[in-house]
Amino acid sequence: MALFKKKEVEKQEIKVDQRLRHIAFIMDGNGRWAKKRGMPREFGHSQGAKVFKRITDYCGEIGINTVTVYAFSTENWKRPKTEVDALMNLFFDYIQEALDVMMKKDVCIRFIGDKTPLSDKMKKMMADVEQGSKNNTRHLNIAINYGGKDEIVHAVNSAIKDGITELSEKDIEDRLYTNNCAMPDLIFRTAGEQRLSNFLLWQSAYSEFYFTDTLWPDLTPEDIDKAVENFYQRQRRYGGL
Which residues are identified as catalytic? Predict the structure, then answer.
């Protein structure tokens, strides 16, 4: 019998600085996670919603000011109606509780994307949350009915409507859905796929990318720590030396 207990190694606290201000997540793998367990895809999305809350909270705890999540793309309407309805119900439930929770956590929420197809009730709730949390210091962008190509077209059309005939990069950037925050420093995708899938096409021009085989519902704060550590091992030259 051992006379002394082996001392546990303390987990090193992760903190970020101004090099990592904005992290964006492609939350992939909910359906596969459920299928592996013999459950309907809707069950995976429900579990994924819980992980979304835990991960976004953790990002704030370690000092990341802005988080953007890809919740529902312009292409996701092609999925079975039962799955789309389940996702919309999850969004509805989240929005109902968002204002009270985000005020306590000092988070400004913006719902980015084309809200046109959403119900009037959901759009009203989104507007209330955005207005009520607008003065908070941390930022959470939730992309619903979002597409990167659609966003650029929207920005260009907005500039044309404003009478601009020769566009600059700033003209477009000022009209992007994410015009309230810095460009993403790190884009993190789960479930093994290594592509953007029409997410933040303009904003990701100089983003770093991190891919993991872990399915979104299995993601933990430790996975975020690994991504952050990996990010700080990279050199970002932005085309320079």
Answer: 28, 76
Closest CA to 100 of 136, 70, 63, 143: 136
pLDDT range class, residue 12, cuts 50, 70, 90: low
Q: Which residues contact 122 (CB under 8 A, 6 or more apart)?
A: 88, 91, 92, 95
**3-class state of residue 63 by DSSP:** coil
Q: Write out pLDDT tens, residues 72-121.
A: 999 999 999 999 999 999 999 999 888 888 888 999 999 999 999 999 99
Report d(CA 188, CA 72) in Å as an integer: 16
Q: Give yes or no for a contact between 61 and 103, defined as CB atoms under 8 angstroms apart.
A: no
Element (H, E) at 17: none
DSSP 218: G
**CA 219 to chain centroid:** 14
**What would the two tokens of residue 67 be?**
């988080």
Residue type, 67: V
